[in-house]
Amino acid sequence: MNSNTVARLSAVMADYPHTLPLKTGQIRSDLLALDFTETKPVTKAFKPMVREQRFDVSELALATFLQAKAHNKPLVLLPATVMGRFQHGCMLHNTERGRLTPTDLVGRRVGVRAYSQTTGVWLRGILQNDYGVDINRVHWVTFEDAHVAEYKDPAGVERAAEGKNMTKMLQEGELDAAIYGSEMPDDPRLQSVIPDPDAAARAWYDKHGVVPVNHMIVVTEALATSRPDLVTEIYRMLLDGKKMFGKADANGIDTIPFGYEANRPAIELMTSYMLQQGLIADRVAIDDVLVARVK
């Protein structure tokens, strides 16, 4: 590899089995080198990426990206999922305080890190469209702003007091339920609001044919415009990582889809949910946001 001709790009991604080969140098390129910034949790990189385009290449939550495009942020999406999961088991309640099911949520206080959090968007969409829950009659309690500065929470959404901890609030009864992301609390009292979430998720998948994508990869518009060859190469490297280590879940479903058509269903359904929930004002067309040369 000739260091004089290799482009050095700044990048941030979490440690997944399919991204680690890029971070350790196991997967390399003759065209580019990725200089990784370690950010834990990786969600802390989303705000500077959206607001400042701080990195050339970044992991980004799908809902954050769609909001960013709605506000004309210069980012381009690669059809490369780095984290996806079924969301049905991510809303918990404290069983010591009685059983809670989706039909019980109206009028209850439900915590979520941010109203625009991707997992929260997925779950509200599922509750509204598959369980008939009027999500506008749920009392939502948030703990952070959106990554996109222009977005403000809807009227009626409460911001928890500074220093409040969502899990402690749930344990002590200040919240009736709470939506979590990747890190679920280790407390056997906290159980899923949706009964038998694994079976519910499989039934939902059989009905919709959609993997609920959480995080994908974006690049700056400047990079996509000036060096489309490098963007194609980034995708190639990510795809090689998936081929080496990316695995389907226990049901044989690929939860990290790659490719234009493989990611279309999740992006289109997420867009519909975000429109329903007032997170974006207009539909963001998949053909307008994905890198054209990477299918």
Question: Brief overview, please?
Answer:
The protein has ten helices and eleven strands. It has helices at residues 20-23, 46-52, 62-70, 118-130, 166-172, 197-208, 221-226, 228-245, 260-276, 286-289; strands at residues 7-12, 32-36, 57-61, 75-84, 91-94, 109-112, 139-142, 158-159, 177-179, 190-192, 213-220.
Order of helices and strands: EHEHEHEEEHEEHEEHEHHHH
Q: Unreliable segments (pLDDT under 50, ≥5 consecutive)?
A: none
Q: Can you give the helix content as a percent range?
A: 25-40%
Estimate the strand proportion.
Answer: 15-25%
| Rg computed from alpha carbons, rounded to a whole number of angstroms | 19 Å
- Overall strand count: 11
| CATH class annotation of the largest domain | Alpha Beta
The largest β sheet comes out as: 6 strands, mixed
Please give the domain count: 2
Distance between the termini: 27 Å
Query: What is the overall shape?
Result: globular
Overall pLDDT metric? 93
Secondary structure category: alpha/beta
What is the helix tally? 10
Architecture of the largest domain in CATH? 3-Layer(aba) Sandwich
What CATH calls the topology of the largest domain is D-Maltodextrin-Binding Protein, domain 2
Which sequence of strands runs across the widest sheet?
8-7-6-9-5-10
Going by CATH, what is the homologous superfamily of the largest domain?
Answer: Periplasmic binding protein-like II
